[in-house]
Amino acid sequence: MRTRTEKPCPDLLDTFMAVGLALFLLLLPFHLVIKRMLPGPIGTYWKEILLGLLLILWAIRCLRARRLLLTDTPLDLAVFLHLALFLLRFVLDRSGWVGAWGLYVSVMYLPLFWLVPTLLRRCPAWTLYLVSGLVGVGAIVALGGLLEFALNVPIWPSEEMIQRQGFPDVFIYGTHIRRVYFTFDSPTTLANTLAMLLPLALSLFLSARRPLARLAAALAAALMAGCIVVTFSRGIWVATVIALVIMALLSSLAH
To answer: How far apart are CA 14 and CA 11, in angstroms?
Structure first.
């Protein structure tokens, strides 16, 4: 339990990292909204700019610690192998700028595997804030998807879908059953995002002590689960069920 004089982060550098990382994670699902509201380079590349600044702060933190601040878990090896695989494919494909762009898209978010643990080790008080914020964003996105399904119209029509097929609607093949995507460019992307946030909502529900917090977490989890269903992404359905089974097993072993 923190005392009144204890700060959430030890120094100003950690505070900047915490605020920047929170903004990056909470705004990322609304990238297309930001891109349309802020036309030009800032709206298009805000996430790259912010992630670059966070990497600089992380590098400074590493220099101050005189070592690379990794997760210190087997995850580090998995991330490096993932990066090496993409680099090898890029070299073997010899696909030029197209391959370079694909490599960039594939590895852009890998630094988060080290940024997040570094922040939470330095500022453990931010853990609850960050998880709660992500669960809240997941609930908002899920609610938007469910409203889109109920209204049977895209709430935020995708420009990419319009350019690709001439209209923004996405249906199950051969039917008029809508697949929702809300502020994302595809139903699968929305389902992937919610599948990652759903376990956080359930963890918050299980760990919360206040009844109101448990109710809010349960409502968020229910919204996410319902929205995952109406994306009609069958692969994500399977992945979500497997993740929940593993989560239940780990939870039972912990108790």
So the answer is: 6
